[in-house]
Structures are given as C-alpha cells and as structure tokens.
Amino acid sequence: MADAEYRSGGIRRLTAAEIDAAKPRAQRYEISDGRSPLRLVVFPTGAKSWAVRYRVSGRQRKLTLGKYPAITLKDARLAASDTVSKAAQGIDLAGQKQRAKIDQAETVRALAARYIENWQKPRNRTWKAAEHSLNQALVRPLGPYLIRDVTRRDLIRVLEGKHRRTMACVQKFFRWTVEQGVLAASPADGIRCAAPINSRDRVLSDQEIRAFFAVLHELGDPWASMFELLILTGQRRGEVAGAVWSEIDLQERAWTLPKERVKNSRSHHVPLSRRAHEIVSTLSSKGKSNFLFPADRGGIGTASGFTRIKRRLDALMLEHLRKSSQLAELPNWTIHDLRRTAATGMAREGVPPHVVEAVLNHSSGRISGVAAIYNRFDYGKEKRAALEMWSAALGRIMDESP
C-alpha cells in the first residue's frame, strides 16, 4: 500500500482574514494550513493559489488545486483531504494531471499543428499544401488519437486510395515525430499507396525543384539545357525540343514560335529571361545544326529518347532526395508537369492569371465573342517581367536549405 505521509506545518490553521492579509514578497512563498498538507501559495504579483504537498509511494508530490478566492478555504481543505486519501490508495493525482497534459500535447491533431508551425512553415513555401494533406488524410480521421496509439493498421485504413504524394507527406510527419523523440519508430514506414497522382494536379514541390536542378548536369547536353529551358519558359515539350535558330533573336532576347508549331495555331512570342538567354547563347556556339537540340547523328532532326532520359532523371532525383531529406520515394511526374510548375510558380509570385496564360499561349475561356477578337494584345512586357520573376524565384528555391 502506498505511503500517504505528508510534511507537517505549523499548529495554527489558516483563516480567511489571514489569507486576505498575506502580502506579496520578492519571491513566491507558501503558508501552511496547520498540520494539513494544504498550502496557500503567494506570488510576487499578489496572486494566490492553493497547492497540496503529499507523499505517494515514497515520493514527494505537489498538486496545484487552483486560484484563491475562486476556490475557497473550505473547498481547498476538502480537495487536500481527498488528494491525501487517494495517495493512501496509491493514486497520484498530480501524476495523472501531468500525464493528461502530456497526452493532450501528443495527440495527432496537436503534433500535426506543431509539425506545420515549427518544421514546414520555416522551410517550405508550399507548407499549406502539406497542412491540407495532413488534415484531410490524418487529422480528420485520427485527430483525437494519442500519437503512440496510432497503429500501422490505422494508417493503412485511413490512407487507402490516397495519392502517393499524400502518403509521402504522412511518412515525413511521422519521421519528424521520431526525430523529436515522441515515437521510437514510425508506423508509416514501408506503407505503399497504389493510387497514382492525377497528372492534372501535379506540381513539383520546392524540394523536388532543388533535386531537379541539383542533378540536371548529370544528364549532359542536350538534355540538361532542354529540361532547364522547359521549366524556365513553361513551354510545351515539343515546342522546346523542336526549336530552330530561325525562331531565336539573341539580341532581343526573344523566341517566336510560328503558328505551324503551336497547339492553338497562333504564333507565340516568348521573352527569354536572363538565365534562359544564357542557355540559348551557349547552345549557339555548339555546332551548325538548324535545331537548338539536334539529334545525336548528323546534326539534323530533334533530340529523341525522352522516356529513357526521364527515367534516368527520376532515378537521379530520388537518390538526391533520399540523401538530402530522407524522402522514401518521388511521386510520379511528367515532363508536362514542368509547364504546370512554371505556371503555378508565376502565380505564386503574384503574376496575374491573364499574363500567366499569355506566357503559356493559353486561351482563358473567360473572354469570348467580339471581346476575344479585340483581346489579342501580346503582353510582351508583362510576359518578360513574369518570366524574370519566375527565374528569380527558381534561384531562391535552389538557395534554400532542403
């Protein structure tokens, strides 16, 4: 049976008048209620509260009951008596209160909020996407659960049918809980989700963009330059791969695609950002082909083998991500997703939607009829500014820590 001893105080018991008369000191101090374990705690601010000092299982314990006068002297004595009575039965109310606080801080909901605030926000501009994924996939179904009670079976159940990108987000969160010492091991490791990411929604994250640029040089030319131009300009794969020198004006830093080479049969003016201009200028000094990216043999035709080179790029990016950020997998992405990434990046930099659509040579669908006929302004200056902003944003992303 538990030892219910407590520290003896003075003989006199407290009175309401003595409690009200107790003055604050430079340091917090306690006044005993006679031989009772009850203590009046007086703070330097003048505030007063009740506490019980007792022993349970040989250990000295202290339980804060609440503030005075919200809790009266009579109620405080009853609570102190109940605390000591429970201690005699081996029940430690202070320990229970402490464990409840820890449990409240270690629910899935509380830890997910800490993860977003303390880890995602300082590191990723796209933290809101991670927050949304966690809330939908994990917090909504498992929010009240203590993190230590979440099992692998729970995760398989709630993540069934979810995209691999969502799975990666959840796995990253659980790895963070291990790093914080909350869990000894992650229940999410090794779980696979079969559902592919809808290509229409796929945008490379900042982390993936850093990996993309970190390994591009390993592809060699023409591939490294071609892929960099794809993400810098936001143009279609066939348009970039089939670019010819007659379309390029190095002096004006511009690329004009004839209507025969674009999807909507409208000629398209693409301003070259400083970085894009550097790439094209370097290519101009290599060989005599009419194409910026000639085939390997004879200098005639365009580069081929996208499937093979994309597979190699994926492997290089995944290797880099595993080393730099311990990501277990790289969600599927297509070359066309570089175009979507550029569009999303420009929008994130504050470029108006109609300018983004002009860069992409899109028809918005919001303007029709006679208005559409007269809305053929090229937005040349706006497009140049947008592409320079996007190029600068890519530079900042590459400079950020993983």
Question: Layout of helices and strands, plus pairs?
Answer:
Elements: H1 16-21, E1 29-32, E2 38-42, E3 48-56, E4 59-68, H2 73-88, H3 93-105, H4 108-123, H5 127-142, H6 152-159, H7 164-179, H8 206-215, H9 223-233, H10 237-241, E5 248-249, E6 254-257, E7 268-271, H11 274-284, H12 306-325, H13 336-348, H14 353-360, H15 370-374, H16 380-399
Antiparallel strand pairs: 1-2, 2-3, 3-4, 5-6, 6-7
Question: Summary?
Answer:
The chain is of the alpha+beta class and 402 residues long.
Q: Roughly how many Å apart are the termini?
A: 55 Å
The total domain count is 3
Strand content: 5-15%
Give the class-level CATH name of the largest domain: Mainly Alpha
CATH topology of the largest domain: hpI Integrase, Chain A
How would you sum up the major sheet? 4 strands, antiparallel
> Which shape, going by the Cα principal axes?
elongated
Mean pLDDT over the residues: 82
Q: Spatial order of the strands in the main sheet?
A: 1-2-3-4
Protein model, in words:
With 402 residues, this protein is of the alpha+beta class. It has 3 domains: 16-102, Integrase, DNA-binding domain (Double Stranded RNA Binding Domain), CATH 3.30.160; 108-197, Orthogonal Bundle (DNA polymerase, domain 1); 206-399, Intergrase catalytic core (hpI Integrase, Chain A). 48% of the residues lie in helices and 9% in strands. The chain has a 4-stranded antiparallel β-sheet with strand order 1-2-3-4. Strands 5-6-7 form a 3-stranded antiparallel β-sheet. Helix 5 crosses helix 7. The chain is elongated. The model is unreliable at 1-10, 297-301 and 365-376 (pLDDT under 50).
